[in-house]
Amino acid sequence: MVSKTLQHIKQTREFDSPKQELFLVMLRLVENLSYDLEQSLKEKGLTQTQYNALRILRGAGPNGLPSCEVGARMVKRVPDVTRLLDRLEKQGWIERERLENNRRVVMSRITPKGLQILEDAQPLIDSFHTNAFHQLTEAQAAEIIRLLDMVTTESPMPTCDEMQDSEEETN
Amino acid sequence: MVSKTLQHIKQTREFDSPKQELFLVMLRLVENLSYDLEQSLKEKGLTQTQYNALRILRGAGPNGLPSCEVGARMVKRVPDVTRLLDRLEKQGWIERERLENNRRVVMSRITPKGLQILEDAQPLIDSFHTNAFHQLTEAQAAEIIRLLDMVTTESPMPTCDEMQDSEEETN
DNA sequence: CGTTCTAATCTGTTTCAACAATTGTTTCTT
DNA sequence: AAGAAACAATTGTTGAAACAGATTAGAACG
What we know:
2 copies of one chain form a homodimer. The first copy, chain A, is mainly alpha-helical.
């Protein structure tokens, strides 16, 4: 079997195993979809990483989250949370404050301006999601999730003692 | 439904649609697997991008390929093929030569040293592939491929008039 | 032929990713 | 209570990603 997904990169030989092909198919698909999303978000001056961080902070509510906790919740591993938050703060999308009772941690909170940029980006996200996977039925999507859910990967994420937090929301 | 894959990023709320969740699950999984592969390849001084380019050039055979064709076959879009090939040449893994009959194109060929580094990396690749998706049966992997194959994305890759080439092989 | 257009590569520049090491703070241990 | 260990965040530095523009060569067309 050779998937259509791989034909345009001239990959036509047989694979040793379906699993090798699966990795390539997923890699290719995710790269393409991520590129589309990235291009969409760029209209609003957002990167995928920044968007992810803002979503996390919106979900965290008014208490905000410590930097390490933001890092731990990111979909993609980020080796430098500080400067990621720097950029968000520079845009006025978040604000930061060092905790009084534990001066090691810096809490980040999303600002009204940050909430606004997420609102502005929502139509782009919606249109992305209706485009991506539009060839699949919901049942098929659910079936893929069920199968992929068997694949557990221990994440390379940093651990972070979670402090208090209110709601959940991520990407 | 909330997949296990997403629980450790504190994503516990219900999704609007399975497709949104599917995107996140795939994104997360590919990021984790790519990270593992990247760490493995680092032992040999290779990046995933460089490895991909070398595989392409090995598959192309002794004639080599023009830069734009390498760019077109990459799994991930690369906006600067020139400097990617620069780095490979600097390591002695490829050699380049400007075509006589069309002095616009520069052909890149893999060198014996380049073939050797691919040989050296093979055990790492093998061990990666046996680890990744080891929880799935081959039939399940094939089923996911079949479903994902319905999702066609028009690639953001540059087009390149393919010249002669001998064999096929990619990542 | 000279002009214009397109193709393939290269170069310049800015920003971000990645890794290592450091600082400041708290906790543990005895 | 003092020293060691652990934690959270920051800083320094290097390399590569990303994008725009320039360069060079060939094709097309009158």
